[in-house]
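User: For my dataset I need records formatted as: sequence, then structure tokens, nothing else. Please produce one.
Assistant:
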Amino acid sequence: MPQESVSEVNVLLIEDDEDDYILTLDYLESIPNFKFNLVWQSQYHQALEALESNSFDLCLLDYQLGPQTGLGVLKEARARQVHTPIIMLTGQSDELLDNEALKAGAEDFVLKSEISSARFIRSIRYALARKELERERLERLRVESDSRAKDRFLAHLSHELRTPLTSILGYTNLLLSREELQNVKPELSIINNNSEHLLNLLNDVLDLSKLNENRLQLNKDKICLNSFLSDLYSLFKMAAAKKGLSFSIEAKTSLPQTVSIDKTRLKQILINIIYNAIKFTSSGFVKVEVKLKTDTQLQFIVIDTGIGIPSEKLKRIFKPFEQVQHVTTRSDEGAGLGLAISSALIKLMGGELSVESALGEGSQFGFSIELDEVNAESLAPLTLDKTQDTSDSSLPSELHGHILIVEDISEIQLLLRTLIGQTGATADIANDGVEALEVLEKNPDKYHLVFMDLHMPRMDGRDTIVALRERALSLPVVALTAAAQKGTREELVALGFNDMMSKPVNVAELGRCLKHYLSEEQIVPTQAETQIPGNLNFLVVEDDSDTRNLLKLLLNSLEVNVVTAECAQSCWQHFKGTQHFDAILLDIGLPDKSGLFLAKEIKAERPEQHIVIASGFDPEPEKLAESQVDDVLLKPITLVDLKEIKERLL
């Protein structure tokens, strides 16, 4: 028969009677399946020090301990956060004493006359079992605490990284759209590509963490499948064409017009797989086949004619940080997270990612996702929208005229001068209002237009325009301001300005302004002519100045009027003012208050107010619901994100 295991138990005996110590030791040694390592203490302070070490599995504590009582030891031990289970030993039965011992935290109480009885053995076993349960509870709490700390760290890290990425990607995209910067576009593209790569890595690491801890949830919504696949086609057709590849999306069956899925996660899966297919294919084609496999299953198969994967490597490609070594080139490598995350996401959607491949013969990745039952009457052939919108936001050319730029910030001076120079006009610089007055008084007929900042040292724009008009200088002056609000234009026109432009300067708006004031007629525009009817008004609340300015610039390019605030207090002042806002975009981490808590306050005041939360991490759904947030944008926020918000409001 197999030998029973022996449990080793460290016991502290606090007892001032040596005979009782010997008796207890003898009995403990006679208990089968246990090896008791007994330490004896007879003094109050030494006993407490031994207990405080928390190195014992069990303590047997005599009630009578010289001038002290065991009850005093027990109370002091619990006050010192001692977790060792303690059994009180008493010479005679005393119900009052027993109750006090239990109330003070003793696991049990045993008469000394019962030390050799079965009751003593049961008491020890129960105390040790409770010790084990307590240990498991503390370990569980420690793990949960570590997990919460990790979650807080990842959320903070995500937010801190996404904020500068918003500025890097946003401003780089704006610079890439400017014709005057053609000579540095290769360098700008490198910055942009590496920033996007960094963002993708950040997203992948956070997703992997959530998947490993079973915290990632799907957010299903009804979408138009045709539009979804058209967007996917537009996204990859140019990337494939640059490598000389044919890219197509084909439907093998009629497809449902609408499906209820997590659009973001399905797109993430397909982007990962298609991107890999294009990356590892140097000639031939990449093709996506879609079909309705059953009434509740939609199947996707991505086929390429790429380098293929050796059979012995196929099982490894779905593991995080794995690469197909000796097959990929250095330029083809990545973090090895895309397929691992895609595989886990597909499992969440009720499917499984499979692969068929042979070295040199291409690969085929396939998966199915579960749908709600599809109505046969809703099926239709796939028709991809292959049109591509193009827009020309270049500045007008062949303008003539001379402009004075009154601005104290050198970067804006350089930007305006460069943009104006592209139109054929010329520009001079004045660093403040005092300098502008001197220049214009000396050369009253030289300039056809003045751009004047409102906030400058020595003499600001408002004082300068008043002084100009008092000197009977009637040339058109356009105010530049980063704090445009409702009524600002009327106020500035009343002071003597002809027009107003918001900062950061929008290129299209600048082009319209130059074309108007440098035309032969040079007609002062009326308020009706300068305002675009039907514009939306946004309040952007963001403490990071670079992100705040970028969001304003992006929204202005969508012809949205923007008021900015850097904190919750400033937001509240704007909100309580006279101006109506169609949407309030709140950063989740404001310096003086949580964006979610601020959203809740605003909704309490005005339930119909549309609120958008901007965050560097995925907020908890429960907190979003509690705050009644209408939309969530994950940083870095793109022009496409803002355009979708605008379209929902129209």
